[in-house]
């Protein structure tokens, strides 16, 4: 996977639980768990905006691009 989700790191830095973030952002804990594990194919900008606003961070603090071995770009 070329995109790694670092949401768990931001939650730890902010000393916040997933349940609190899910409630504040308006998504289910199950969907937040899927996002944290990287098992989603996409995330809405609206959701990403709400997460960043609540955690007081930038999207780059949550999402990281790690090139694959066969990535030629």
From TrEMBL:
Transmembrane segments: none annotated. CDD domains: HTH_XRE. It holds the Pfam family HTH_26. InterPro entries: Cro/C1-type_HTH, Lambda_DNA-bd_dom_sf. SMART domains: HTH_XRE. It comes from the Bacteria. Residues 10-62 form the HTH cro/C1-type domain. One of its GO terms (molecular function) is DNA binding. This is Putative transcriptional regulator. It comes from Stakelama sediminis.
């Amino acid at each position: 996977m070329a995109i790694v989700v670092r949401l768990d790191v931001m939650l730890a830095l902010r000393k916040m639980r997933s349940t609190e973030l899910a409630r504040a952002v308006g998504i289910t804990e199950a969907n937040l768990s899927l996002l944290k594990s990287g098992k989603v194919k996409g995330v809405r900008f609206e959701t990403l905006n709400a997460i960043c606003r609540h955690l007081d961070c930038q999207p780059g603090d949550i999402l990281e691009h790690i090139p694959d071995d066969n990535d030629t770009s």
